[in-house]
Design brief:
With about 475 residues, the chain is α+β, with helices and mostly antiparallel strands. It is built from 13 helices and five strands. The protein has a domain of about 90 residues. Helix 1 runs parallel beside helix 6 and helix 4 runs parallel beside helix 8. It is flat, with a radius of gyration of 37 Å.
């Protein structure tokens, strides 16, 4: 049995590693395409992009791992069936469960590692990726002067050049609008040529040659409507721009630590307890304020005198007509304030409950990844034994179909849980609840060596029922056949 177990494990490890990294690469390219607008034109160094891709790949393991388990299990068992190795083992008295036993143990280990990863490593990766992505998004694009186009990336300046030299440093026909004094286009600089050079990592020196600067001054005298105009001619002028804002600033990770995606199981449970206590206090304050408002209304109308008559359903009839307007006004004010306060309290309570649901979703997500790996294995391995096809052809097709079902059910259930249509447990375990019976069915069919794709076997019970009905409706046909 040791040789059999070694054969099955070695046949499984190769496809598992290959499909895992292929799936991870495809998902990573999708991530890169999603955030391509935030990355292009920022002048990011290669190690920054590599760091972002590394953290993003860690966050995508939750999708790549179940898919790789599904594909590799179908490929392994399908390859054993295609080369008649399963048939030989079955004829030797080795059951399918015995053949799958090392893969089951390996899948359990993978599920345990998946839980450890999602609970301990994934929150750290999400924290670092979220912080880095935030810094990249808020980084200004690199300076890009295009001929004939005004560049406004530098604060308080608008720069246009007619053309650029082949060295990308020499500039010609330079026009600059200086808005440093926040007075509109009152200061303009025109130069025949210029040269752009960086001084260290912070300052950009723009040297202008053979130009003029025009500035329109405000008239300090309010009586005269004249605006002095100044014109200065220069042979050489240097303008220094502070480029510190173009450098990427790394934010502190402490800012994002309270996010539910960046916490472990213990931290989530602790925060949920705190949020539940805060929600209970908020509801208690709501009821206390309503009670206080009614007490205030009662004290406001306590000095009103009532008529000594029985109550006939009309509350106003108990008071004098001169007091009716006061009572109605006080009641309307009370109703308006109560309605406004109730609406605001309702929105606040719903927001708190939605936040608690997000935390519970992350708690369940820690376990759904591990269970999904097991369920998809018990779908893939029996299915591979049934179809008896290895390679990347037919197994990949079946894998994509089942993985799409799993993925669509997962995102649908999570969406319903976030919106409060379903409970968090119902939404997060929807995909597992649907696919678990499928795994049991396929395992049973593979263990009993049933032909799942022979449709006649599914119609045998229907044919049997029709045969019984025919005998009951026409019993003479059977007796005539005997005679």
């Amino acid at each position: 049995m040791k040789k059999l177990h070694k054969l099955v494990i070695t046949s499984y490890l190769g496809p598992f590693v290959m499909t895992f990294f292929i799936s991870l690469f495809i998902l990573l390219m999708q991530f890169l395409w999603k955030y391509i607008d935030d990355l292009v034109g920022k002048g990011l160094e290669w190690h920054v992009i590599g760091e972002l891709m590394f953290y993003a790949s860690a966050s995508l393991v939750s999708l790549a791992l179940p898919l790789s388990v599904l594909i590799s299990s179908i490929m392994t068992m399908g390859s054993l069936g295609e080369h008649y190795e399963l048939v030989s083992l079955r004829s030797a008295g080795v059951s399918l469960g015995r053949v799958m036993f090392p893969l089951i143990i390996f899948s359990i280990i993978i599920s345990g590692l998946a839980f450890y990863f999602s609970n301990n490593l994934l929150p750290i990766a999400n924290l670092k990726m979220g912080t880095l992505l935030y810094d990249i998004r808020h980084k200004k694009p690199t300076m890009d002067l295009r001929p004939g186009v005004f560049y406004k990336g530098i604060d308080n300046y608008a720069i246009r050049v007619g053309s650029k030299g082949e060295d990308d440093v020499s500039l010609y026909d330079v026009l600059i609008y200086d808005h440093t004094e926040n007075k509109g286009n009152n200061k303009i600089i025109v130069a025949d040529s210029g040269r752009m050079e960086f001084e260290g990592d912070r300052y950009l020196m723009l040297t202008l040659y053979n130009g003029n600067s025009y500035e329109q001054k405000d008239n300090r005298s309010r009586d005269e409507r004249t605006y002095p105009h100044m014109r200065n001619e220069f042979q050489r002028q240097i303008i220094r721009f502070d480029m510190a804002e173009f450098n990427m600033r790394r934010s502190s990770e402490e800012i994002f630590k309270d996010n539910y995606k960046m916490q472990s199981f213990g931290q989530l449970i602790e925060n949920i307890d705190t949020l539940d206590q805060s929600l209970t206090e908020r509801k208690s304050n709501f009821y206390d304020n309503l009670k206080r408002n009614f007490i205030a209304l009662k004290s406001d109308t306590s000095n009103l005198k009532t008529k000594p008559k029985a109550y006939d359903g009309n509350a106003l009839a108990l008071f004098d007509e001169t007091q009716h307007s006061r009572i109605v006004e006080a009641s309307l004010n009370m109703a308006r304030s109560t309605r406004s306060y109730t609406h605001s309290a309702k929105d606040d309570i719903e927001a708190r409950m939605s936040r608690i649901s997000r935390y519970w979703i992350e708690v369940h997500r820690k376990f759904t990844l591990s269970i999904a790996c097991l369920i998809l294995f018990f779908i893939g391995a029996p299915l591979g034994a049934i179809i008896r096809k290895g390679g990347l052809g037919l197994p990949t097709v079946f894998s994509i179909v089942f993985f799409l079902i799993y993925y669509l059910l997962s995102i649908t259930g999570e969406k319903f849980a976030k919106e409060g249509v379903w409970t968090v447990a119902e939404g997060m375990w929807l995909s597992s609840a649907v696919l678990f019976p499928v795994g049991l069915f396929l395992t049973y069919k593979a263990a009993t060596d049933s032909k799942i794709f022979e449709w006649e076997s599914y119609f045998k019970p229907v044919k049997f029922l029709f045969e019984l009905l025919r005998k009951k409706l026409n019993p003479s046909a059977d007796t005539s056949g005997l005679s």
